[in-house]
Design a protein that fits this description.
The structure is a homodimer of 234-residue chains. With 234 residues, chain A is mainly α. In chain A, 69% of the residues lie in helices and 0% in strands. In chain A, helix 1 packs across helix 4, helix 5 packs antiparallel against helix 9 and helix 6 crosses helix 7.
């Protein structure tokens, strides 16, 4: 499986609800994630949720005993969404540089799909929560870390497979590729233009410079030539 | 003036307080910015400020008539801090590629100085507020836009001065350089290692690829060789 922007690389995360209680819980969490994605977790209160969902506060408390439990479950839901849309399909597809590409491509598609908001939940959350104590901050950092580790591992694997030059630092490559994504997202939030689309040739230009000579440089010329190259490799 | 990481490129923004009222206002805003930087603007309430500063709520209301006025003044203070630490010194120094470098260098120093928090206020705020209506979101976006426009303008100027290749898109270059900074910051928040320092050679590698042949490639070899090159140009 090779991902490009013609295929939304998503898997449904919906396990069929086992009970009405579970169904209510999922409805609450969906709304909580919507608020958290649009306005940040701090905007999430049990009172507001109760009002928006036309539920009683005590009904909500039956599911989430505190604001912290609610925040944690919301972060968990966002994390699962990201795993299902990006990490799992990338891990199920290809290896080395192909997986590295798929991770970045699926990240872009995930942002482009605008679930609830143009801003991707975890980028803002990482910057706001990085220096805070407590389990919510920890859960947010662990999701960003999971993404960053997946990038690092794919870079390492691509080096081991002699697709990428082995002399460059794994952490630095991961940070630069992630920077192309986050930087394109930043520009997109400001200018709402073609920045996310432009991230793809920028990624390929960077990969071309990092590539070992086992891959023809012509493969990196455009997203189209790159997809063709990957297809031929199968 | 060439900025490198040996010189904190800051200018004091402290105009001498004209009155005790103004002094109190600045004390309140300093604390507000501390809270906003560490925990996000949403954590900022008049009640909390009153408690932390041992002031009466009514005393605070005399300075800030609403949470929104307080948030706006806090964003304004953060914006002034960024202007004084990054934008103004860069604009007062060099032109073209030198100013482009100084903007990036001063941005890194500003983050490295850890004012209140490892996270730089506006990056998190942009991601959290990008899709929200209202004057606070507008003020946050305008500060990020001011930074991004300064980058774009320096890129344009460097192209006009034939320091950078004129065929590349200004917006894409600005987005990529900003991405190197934000990506390094992201990695730094997760790993607390050398990511911010590594942004400098990464920036130079990118500038080398974008440079016109008016600059010897050896200049881009390391931050040290780059500073020497800029010094020689004066």
């Amino acid at each position: 499986v090779i991902f490009d922007d013609r295929q939304p690389g998503t898997r449904s995360s919906a396990s069929r609800p086992h009970s009405q209680g579970e169904q209510t819980r999922q409805t609450i969490l969906a709304r909580a994630l919507k608020i958290g994605s649009r306005e940040g977790l701090a905007a999430l209160t049990i009172g507001r949720l109760a009002k928006e969902l036309k539920m009683s506060k005590s009904g909500l408390f039956a599911h989430f005993h505190s604001k912290e439990t609610l925040e944690l479950a919301t972060v968990e839901k966002a994390k699962n969404g990201f795993q299902n849309a990006v990490l799992l399909p990338a891990q199920a597809s290809g290896r080395g540089i192909e997986r590295l590409w798929n991770l970045c491509e699926l990240w872009l598609v995930h942002v482009e799909r605008h679930i609830f908001s143009r801003a991707y939940f975890f980028t803002g959350a990482l910057f706001v929560y990085a220096d805070r104590p407590g389990p919510v901050a920890k859960a947010i950092k662990s999701s960003s870390q999971e993404w960053f580790d997946a990038l690092r591992k794919a870079v390492e694997d691509a080096q081991a497979r002699r697709e990428l030059d082995r002399s460059a630092s794994v952490g630095r490559i991961a940070s630069e590729l992630n920077g192309i994504l986050v930087g394109a997202h930043y520009a997109y939030l400001l200018e709402n233009g073609t920045s996310l689309r432009e991230a793809r040739p920028a990624l390929l230009a960077r990969l071309r410079e990092l590539a070992a000579n086992t891959i023809p440089t012509s493969a990196f010329q455009s997203p189209r030539s790159w997809i063709k190259y990957l297809e031929k490799m199968h």
